[in-house]
Structures are given as C-alpha cells and as structure tokens.
Amino acid sequence: MIKYILPVLLLLGCADIDTHRGGNGAVEKSLLGNYCAPGCIWSSYAVSSGVQSLTHYCDGQGCACVEDGNIYGKCSLDNTGPVKEENVQHSGWSNEYNSIKGDRIADEAYYEASRRGTYGYCYNAVADAVERITGRFLWGSHAYQAADQFASSSHFYEVYSYNIRSLPAGAIVVWGKGSSRSGHISVALGDGREASDDIAQQMTYHYGGARERVFYPK
C-alpha cells in the first residue's frame, strides 16, 4: 500500500488544505474595478506588480485602492479621493536585509517544521511561521502563488544575485509551478538548510523544472 502513496504525494507537491488565506487584517471586498473612492478603483494589478502594498482582498485577490488609470496614485478610503504624494508614508520599503527579523522568521520556521514533520504542506507551514512575525498577508492554495505576495509585501524584497546554497536566515525561496501542481516554498535557516513542513538541505532544483524566486526580510 505504501508504494502507491508516495507517487501520489509527489504529484501533489505543496498543495495545502487552505483554499484562501486572508491576512494582515485585510478586508474582503468584491468586484475588482469598482469605485472605492471618488476617482479611484480597486486594483489587484497595483498589488501584484509591487507598486502598492496589499490592504484589502477583492474577489480573493490582493488589491488596493488607486486612482482610476494610475496604479501609482494611492487613494484614501475616507471619500477624499487620491492621496497627495507628500502624505504617503514610504517607511519600511528600503531594501536592506534585516538580520533580526530574518533570525526570528528562521526560528519560527524551524519550530514549525520540527513540530510537523509532514510532506506536501510546505505553503501552510511557511505561512504559519512567517505570519507569526509579520502578521497575516498570505493566501492561496499552492506554494507558487506566494511569490507575487512576497514581492508586494512591505516585510520582504526580492533579490536577484545570491548563492542559493548559502542564503541568510529568514530568506524565502519560492519555486515556480513548472510541470508540478504547486511548486515549493521554504525558509532558509542560514546554515544551508531549509524549513517548510519539514527540515532538509536547501533545495537547489525543483522537479517541476521552474526557476526559483528569492526574498529577503527587511
């Protein structure tokens, strides 16, 4: 019986039971493109492109209230329309590795992986560990879906030059879907190992064939 179970698990990859993860106190909204303030609409592209941070969920997608036709123009929800640039707070968006936050995320990921010791629930485990430090912001049922959410998070920034075998503690690695069902996601422990729903040597290639994206805490 066991020999039939393993192939099934390999096909599943890191699909998780959660079908939607609301987070960060984000509020459910409906109908993307609807007006959220005078001259402003709900936009998911503003969030997925990394221009705006996630503040709400629209039809299950991360979204933000922006000027109609201008995703760079952030809007207030108090019916005052677009927010003037001088009033927009940009603190927290500097791209510099935060070793304190990285260590905390790595510690939580190590604890979560040690507690679980499962297979196929990498996204659920990583989300639980990360969100104990950042607050909730991740949603979806497949690991590869997390990449754009980390890219738009004020707690992380994407890096393009790195040695995947020696990532700093708290670095997030998200593998694309490729030919797999869900891709993979893990937290670097800072010693060449990764934690997801178990602890293993850092993955350097995913069987689905897709590339990885890497995010550092800031």
Helix and strand layout, with pairings?
Layout: H1 2-12, E1 27-29, E2 35-37, E3 40-43, H2 45-48, E4 56-58, E5 61-67, E6 70-74, H3 99-116, H4 122-134, H5 146-151, E7 156-159, E8 172-175, E9 184-188, E10 193-195, E11 199-201, E12 212-217
Parallel strand pairs: 1-4
Antiparallel strand pairs: 2-3, 3-5, 4-5, 5-6, 7-12, 8-9, 8-12, 9-10, 10-11
Helix pairs in contact: 3-4
How would you describe the overall organization of this protein?
24% of the residues lie in helices and 23% in strands. The protein is an alpha+beta fold. The strands form 2 sheets. Strands 1, 2, 3, 4, 5 and 6 form a 6-stranded mixed β-sheet that branches. A 6-stranded antiparallel β-sheet has the order 7-12-8-9-10-11. The longest helix is centred in the middle third of the chain and has 18 residues. The radius of gyration is 18 Å and the shape is elongated. The N terminus is likely disordered.
In short:
This protein is 24% helix and 23% strand.
Order of helices and strands: HEEEHEEEHHHEEEEEE
Radius of gyration: 18 Å
The proportion of residues forming helix, as a percent range, comes to 10-25%
Assembly context of the chains: single chain
Q: Can you count the beta strands?
A: 12
> What is the percentage of strand-forming residues?
15-25%
* Overall pLDDT score: 80
Spans where pLDDT lies below 50 across 5 or more residues: 1-12, 16-30, 83-93
Shape label:
elongated
Tell me about the biggest sheet?
6 strands, mixed
Distance between the termini: 46 Å
